[in-house]
Amino acid sequence: MTSLPVLKTNVRPHPLTRAIAIVQEKIRNPVVRRKIAWLTTLHRRRHVGTGGAALRELFDRGVTHFPGFIDAERTARLVKDLSSLPCFDPWNRKAGEFSFDVPPEGTHVGQIRLAPTLESLHELAMDDRIVDLATGYFNAKPYLDSIQAWWSYSGNETPQEAENFHRDNDGIRFLKFFIYMTDVGEANGPHVFVEGSPRSPVLTQLGRLGDAQVEEAFGKEKILVMIGKAGDAFLEDTFGIHKGQLPREGCRLLVQFRYATAETQFRSPVVVVRPNPKKSSITSLVSK
User: Fold this and answer.
1) What's the 3-state SS for 193-214?
2) pLDDT tens per residue across all 288 residues of the chain
3) Nearest Cα residue to 124 out of 181, 55, 184
4) pTM of the complete model beyond 0.85
5) What domains are defined for the chain?
């Protein structure tokens, strides 16, 4: 395992970022949000992505898939590295840190605080295919805002927080790239996404949404259940309606990268030494 030196911890977003977050959360119309995002990137050099069919799918459906994004050998190494790092429950910080395989009773999520220190994850986050799609989607050079990884645990009766349908409000324009590190079947807490919802003005209110409410508004055929193998990945606009389904069996390990048009209110609190100083196709807030 190659760990990058940590420069800063407990980094908080800029006060202006926090102020903008309060305002943008109140802007619920997807068209208005896209126009504001376009205006906020006018001062930066414009870019045109070459994502082709994948970029069109991302615009139309809100998600595009990458089966077998990481091969089995590389996935196994990453699982081993991530399994060696301590976890914490973001919804119960009093529980302290714990090993991934002995979560405190009632824990739904074991987040890995030091995931951004793994050089292998930075290499994946800088993959040209993903950066190019983010560039095309934003029509501007993207920011790598965070690198995260977490375990989702079974053994709980009712969903908690993001295990319910919702729209993310991280920033005015952003994408999230998800990689399954374990096989995810129907019972293992698959990610669920409502096709086309990032562009829809339906159910744009803040807060959690009920399953029946979402199905009635969009139809069952639009609700995509992302089952997949370890190493499968997908890029998604999570202003669209989605959830990480509560696992009924086993546990799920997932890696997530956030790309945005600017720093978000949930930027990485851990900043490490930049693994590749010459990389210039993206601005990283996770490394300096």
Assistant:
1) EECCHHHCCCCCCCCCECHHHH
2) 889 999 999 999 999 999 999 999 999 999 999 999 999 888 776 665 567 899 999 999 999 999 999 999 999 999 999 999 999 999 999 999 999 999 999 999 999 999 999 999 999 999 999 999 999 999 999 999 999 999 999 999 999 999 999 999 999 999 999 999 999 999 999 999 999 999 999 999 999 999 999 999 999 999 999 999 999 999 999 999 999 999 999 999 999 999 999 999 999 999 999 987 666 678 999 999
3) 181
4) yes
5) 6-284 (2.60.120.620)
